[in-house]
Fold:
Amino acid sequence: MMNTAVGLIGLGAMGSGMAGSLRRAGHNVHVFDIRPGVAAAFAEQGGHACATLAELAAACDVIVSVVVNAAQTEEVLFGPGRDGSGCAAHMKPGSTFVMCSTVDPQFSIGLESELQALGLHYVDAPISGGAARAASGEMTMMTAAKPEAYARTGHVLDAMAAKVYRLGDRAGAGSKVKIINQLLAGVHIAAAAEAMALGLREGVNPNDLYDVITHSAGNSWMFENRMAHVLAGDYTPLSAVDIFVKDLGLVLDTARASKFPLPLSSTAHQMFMQASTAGHAREDDSAVIKIFPGITLPEGAKKA
Amino acid sequence: MMNTAVGLIGLGAMGSGMAGSLRRAGHNVHVFDIRPGVAAAFAEQGGHACATLAELAAACDVIVSVVVNAAQTEEVLFGPGRDGSGCAAHMKPGSTFVMCSTVDPQFSIGLESELQALGLHYVDAPISGGAARAASGEMTMMTAAKPEAYARTGHVLDAMAAKVYRLGDRAGAGSKVKIINQLLAGVHIAAAAEAMALGLREGVNPNDLYDVITHSAGNSWMFENRMAHVLAGDYTPLSAVDIFVKDLGLVLDTARASKFPLPLSSTAHQMFMQASTAGHAREDDSAVIKIFPGITLPEGAKKA
Structure:
C-alpha cells in the first residue's frame, strides 16, 4: 500500500505542494496540468508527467483532483461538455477519485453516486491551509467517504496532510464543513475590514488598533492575518476578492436549497461583490476594505 | 505614590475584582456600591466601605468608575437628574476620575472637558477580559488621557491590569478602540451562531464542526469560546444578549454621527435585537443562535 500509483491533477499553488508531499512519501506520482510544461517541470525531480488525463487515469489507483471549482472538476472527470475525454472513462475498476475543490456539497454527493455507478470509489476531500502548508505536508483535509474508499486512500491522504478530518461515511460532510469554514473566513475578513475602516474614520492609529484587537476577544485568525496586509498597504493576492465572491456564493446556494437564512453571509457576499465590481476582483481579499468611503488607507512601501 | 487613596465605584463582576487588585497592591481602597451590604462585605478583608459617593469622593485622589453604561456614569458624577449629589461636586481639586465603562466615545470626550472645567483630571479607560482576569489583575485597559492624568494614575491602572494600552493624549481613543473591539466581538458571536446553525441544518455533527473550525482559518476567539456554550446547551449568561444590543448600538451611533456605513455591524445588531425580543435578552449572548428556524440545538446537561 505504501508505494501507490497516485495521480495528481492541477499543479497550482496547492496541488504542486501536495504532489511534492506524495513524492517524498515514496508514492509513484503521476501529474497532469493544462499548462504546457508544468507537469514536465515537476517530473524533473521524480514522478511522471502525463500528456493527457486518459494516460494519468489508466496508470493510477488513486487520483487526486486539485482544480479550482465544480466546473473544472466535472471537466476533469467527464471532459468538456461531457464528451467522454476525462478521467472517468479511463480509470481502473475499483480505483478512487479524491475531490479536493471547494464545491456545493450537493455536487460532491452527486459525484459519489455517479462514480459508484461506474465501479469507482470517491472521497469528498476539500483542503485548507494555504500553499506553504501544502508544500510541507502540513495542510488540513476535511473528508467524508465510504469505508471502502478510505481503506484504499487513507495512507495517501495522510501523506499530504497533517490532519485528515474524517467527518462522515459517505460524501457531503467534508464539503459542508469546508464551506462553513469559508462562511466564517469570508465574514471575518469583511468584519475585520469594517472594524479597521471605522477606526480610520474615527482617527484611531491603525497600528494601535491592530495591536489591541489581536490581544483581545475581538480577534479572529483572519483579522490578524489580513489586516497586516492593510497596514502594509500590500494587496498582492494570496487569496483574491473573487474567491469569496465564489465561496460565499456556494454558502448561500447551499442554504437557499433548504430555505435557510444567513444574514451575515449574505451581507458579506454583497461587500465582496461590491469590491469585485469596483475593480478589486483580483486583489487580495483584504481589499474589501476599499468599498468604505471617506477614509485614507495606509500606503504600502511599493507606493512610497 | 504607591499608597494612593483610590475609590472604586461599582462592585460588580469586574469592579469587585479590580478593587481586590488595588487592595493587594497596597492602595488605600474606598468602595461604593448601590446594593446595600456589598461594600461592607468587601471591606471586611480590608479597605473602607463608603455610605455615599460624596464620602468616597472626599477621601480619594483617584476614583475608578466601573458601572454599566453612560447613564450610570453620569449619575455617579453628577447625581440623578444632575442634582449635584454625585462625585464631581465633592472630589478634591486635582484628583482624577477613571471611566471604565463602554460608552459612546463622544460622551467620554465630553466628560473630560466638563471635569477639566471643574479642575479635575480624567482617564478614558474602558476595560476588557472578563471577571476572572479582573480578579487576578490580568485584564486589559484601553486608555487615553492627558499626560497630567496619566502621571497621577499610571501606577493605579497598572495595579488593575496586565496590559494598559495608552492610545492617545486626550480622551476618546480608549473608548473608540473599545467599541471597535465590541463591533468585532458582536459580529463574530453572530457569525459563529450562523455557521453553527447552518451546520445543524445540513446535518453536520456539531462537535466535529467545532473541532475543525477551531483548528482552521475560520476560527475566532468568540467562535471558540461561545460555541462551547451552544454545544453544552448552557445559556447561563456570562455576557448577555442585551449587552450586544447595547454595545453594537453604540458602534452604530458612533458611525452614524459621521454617516459611515457598517453593513455587518448593523446586520448583527438586528440579530441580537431579534434574539432579545424573542425572549432571550438575559441569556448568554450565544443564545443569538436561537433566532435560526428549522434546527434542533444541542441540549444541555441541565435539561437532560
